[in-house]
Every structure is written in structure tokens, then in C-alpha cells.
Amino acid sequence: MNYTSNPGKLALSKLHNPELLVRECYVGGEWVSGDGLKDVIDPGTLLSVFETAQCGVDIVDICIAHAEQSRSDWQSRLPVERGLILRKWAKLIRKNADDLAVIISVEQGKPLFESKGEVEYGASFLDWFAAEGERALGQSLPSHKPNMFTTNFAQPIGISLAITPWNFPLAMITRKAGAALAAGCPMIVKPAAETPLSASALAVLAAEAGIPGGVFQVIHGDASTLCAALLKHPEIRALSFTGSTRVGQILLEQAAGTVKRCSMELGGNAPFIVFEDANLEQAVQACMEAKFATSGQDCLAANRVYVHDNLHDEFVALLAGKIENLQVGYGLNVSTQIGPMTVAGTVIKCAEMVRDAVQEGAVIVTGETSKNDGGYFVTPLLLTGVTDDMKISREEIFAPIVSVLRFNDVCDVIQRANDTEMGLAAYVYTASMSTALWASEALEYGMVAVNAYSFTGPPLPFGGWKQSGLGREGSTLGINEYLENKNVSFGGICPHIPD
Ligand code: NAP
Question: What whole-number distance in Å separates Cα of residue 237 and Cα of residue 231?
Fold first, then answer.
């Protein structure tokens, strides 16, 4: 292989810490070769940059045995000790940030500056949950009976399973593992097939941080076979999934058989509403950020941009100018703002969505639907004249395509924004506090950003309403997904009071 024609492979060969690059699965503290190897494809060149071991279903029992073996030791450690180990893991992630960012950009495609941002975002959840573990409080309850003392214990739920997507290959793992491990629960991770290398690199650093081998394990292989087998196991008590609503529904059905605790971070269809009194410049810039982060492949991405009639034309003109200046390119190039799509299907889906929208009356203001410079590239595109019934409004675009819809009635736009089965994030731009408060209350979404974008982080409860998910990650709530409540009542407390 000529390395110069394969920049991803070249970049991986130059990591400062080559030990981060691992083929095998990480099971019980050992690196395990599977039954075969699968190429890791750089979406910016379509060339293989590395390989990953593919485990068969027999790995499932082995993983669970290791997790079970280490469970009681891990959960009996003091929260402060678990926290110290999580903080060490975070420190090692930061120490290896440049290498981890390269790995993310090569396997996922996102621009390097965004990959660096993801590494810090990912590490921050470990620090957050290191502290939250010490605050996993039970409760003392006012008794409803005489001479009785009653209380709730918060205890680790047991072995957990994380199934993660390719758009944030590092942070979606740490956001789950931080909470699980802080609560005292071992976690088995099945990362997305497109982005196995970030997950394996995390396992290398987990081991270095002192996390016992059975407490954090990473396996690669056929998702449906491995996950179905894992979800059949009664020993796995919690499932945390981030990915599409379609796969989330399948997993919920499989988890029902053994009634597991399920935390689901699923698809979005975010409205971005620009009210008549909004600061136009700020709203346009925010729309750029809310749409084009992770090259549009973000569950929080602005999917339907509703602009008031009186601002519409000026908004579109400003937005088009900014979109035309976006630099599309290979993720490792420093000038790149929009990288390739991670999966081939997105390129085809985009072309179909835009074609259908145009056939139904939408207009392309800027951009084109086909651009293939040897990778899964999609040129940023701006559509106006979009209506709510078009497929591009009904489905998550998950690509750098902006879809602008008009409105002139404030109540009507909220109703239109809510007219979807998704309910993850919504954006509101307005200068009026009362419009901001009223709209925030009326929007049926788990997260509303008012005059803000890029708002997520450890203190915020991350999660959606309706078919966007169940449960919350991050914040003070995230650890609860890995805790069981136990009510304990003590009778005959006072010998002087008759029962
Ligand atoms: P996906 O296709 O649902 O895949 C997610 C994970 O599920 C991958 O690890 C995948 O493994 C696995 N999987 C696929 N089919 C499976 C099956 N039948 N049984 C068990 N596991 C299975 O989602 P994606 O395309 O990677 O990610 C994009 C989606 O994630 C978007 O809808 C986005 O909105 C959503 N997302 C949501 C959030 C949030 O917090 N709400 C955050 C990020 C992304 P393989 O890769 O091996 O197939």
C-alpha cells in the first residue's frame, strides 16, 4: 500500500501513542482475536485504514462471566475510589487527545477541530460522573406507620450494555460508561461497525487507568447477532442505546424478554424557529452551527428551519452566503469544515430527499446533490419553499442540507414544530422573553435552546420526548439509569412505643 495515497492509514501510522490502535476485542482485560477481520474504511477516501476483529456469538457468555466476576469487587469499592479511577481515565484521554482526534477523524470523517472537541466533551463526562458517584444518594422517608423508620437505598443495577453510534464514536461511550462505572456497574460496549477504533483506544486507556478488565469491555462483530444474545441474558440488567429510532425499537422488544432497564437516545427532527423579532445575524450564525456541526450528522441538528415571513428573504440570502464559504474536504485537512458522510447510504439518501423536495416545489438556493471526490462527500445545500409534508421535513436529514420553511403565525409554527413523532431538541430565536418562555413551554422536546446552540454538556439532562428516547444521560439524572431503588423499613424502632 502506498501510504501517500492513503492519508488515513498514514496518519494512523504516525500516532504518538501507537498502542492506541488495536485490532482485537477487549474482553476480561485481554485482547481477543475474533473469528475474522473487518476493514475499517476511511469515509474520506473509501480506503481501508485498519482492521477489526469480529467476534462470534460465543464471546457473549465469556464477556458476561468476566463482568459478573468483577461486579461485586467493583461495586463494593468506595465511590471515591471509583471516581479517582474515572478521573484518571479522563486525564489519560486528554493526554492522548491529539491521537484520539486523529482516530476519530479518520474513521468517522469529521473535521479534526471537531474531533478534538469530541475528545474533551467525552472526557468531561468521566469527570462529571466521578463526582456524581459520590452523590448517588438514597433517601430517608417520613414514615407512614408508627414506630417505623423507612428509607430508600440506591444500589448498582448490575451489568450494563452500551450500544453506540458512529457519529460520536468516543463521547457516546464515555457518557454511558462514566455513569455506569460511577454507579458500580460493569459495562460491555458494542460500538458502531464504522467506528471501532475509538472504542478500542478507550479500552486501552481504561486499562491504563486501572479499570478492571471485566468492568469495561469492548466487543466488535455482527450487531444483530451479538446484541440479541446479550439482551437475552438475564445477567444484563441495563441497556443504554444511542442510535436510530428504528434500531431502538428492535432493542426495546428484545430487552422486554428479561425486563431490562432501558435508556434510549434516538433520532431527532429539530425545529429551528426564527421569530420576527430575532437578531438576524445571530440567528443565521446559530443556524449554521446547529446545522453543520458534525457535518450535519448530529441528532441535535436543525432539521426544519422555520423563518418568519418578514425575515425570510434576508435570512436566506445571509445563510446562502455563509454556506457557499464552507470548506468541504478531508477531515484531517486543517481548513476542512465539512467532512465526508460516514456511511455511503447518506449520499444516496440526500440525493433522493432533495430530488423529491424539488419535484414537490422546493427550490435549491445553493449547493448541488452530487459530489464525489473519492469519498462520501455531500456538498452543503440550501433549500427553500419546503413544506411540512415533504419527506425532508418528516425525516431526519442527517447531512449538510438546510431546509427552510416559512411561517407568519406564532401559534401555528409551534404546532407545526410539534407535529412529528420525534422530540429531541428544538431551537428558538427571539428578542422577546415572553415569546421565549411561551415557546419553550409549548415545544414538545426534551431540550430547548433559546438564542443558543451547541448547548450540551455534562450538567444538562440529555434526552428526548416521544420516539426520540427514554431516560436521560449526563446531569444529576444520568446515574439513575444504573441505580436500583430499594425500600428498607425498620419496625420496632423505639422499645417504648407499642407496635
Ligand atoms: P443505528 O444504525 O441505529 O446504529 C447504532 C448502533 O446500533 C450501532 O452500534 C449498530 O451496530 C447497532 N445496531 C444496528 N442494528 C442493530 C440491530 N439489529 N441489533 C442491535 N444493534 C444494532 O444508528 P447510527 O446510524 O449509527 O446513528 C445515527 C442515529 O443515531 C441517528 O438517528 C441519530 O439521531 C441517532 N443519535 C442519537 C443521539 C441521541 O443522543 N439522541 C446521539 C447520536 C446519534 P452496527 O454499526 O454494527 O450495525
Answer: 9
Phi/psi-derived region of residue 299, left when phi > 0, alpha when psi is between -120 and 50, beta in every other case: alpha
CA-closest candidate to residue 198, choices 342, 2, 396: 342
Contact status, residue 421 vs residue 395, Cβ threshold 8 Å: no
| Cell numbers representing residue 46 in the block | 473509501
Active site residues: 265, 299
**C-alpha 102 chain-centroid distance:** 19
Q: Which residues line ligand 1 (CB under 6 A)?
A: 163-168, 190-193, 223-224, 227, 242-244, 247, 250-251, 265-268, 299, 396, 424, 464, 469
Question: Model pTM?
Answer: 0.97
Encode burial over 335-358: b for 16+ CB neighbours within 10 A, e otherwise. ebbbbbbbbeebbebbeebbeebb
The H-or-E segment that residue 365 falls in is strand 363-366
pLDDT digits (tens, 9 = 90+) for 172-225: 999 999 999 999 999 999 999 999 999 999 999 999 999 999 999 999 999 999
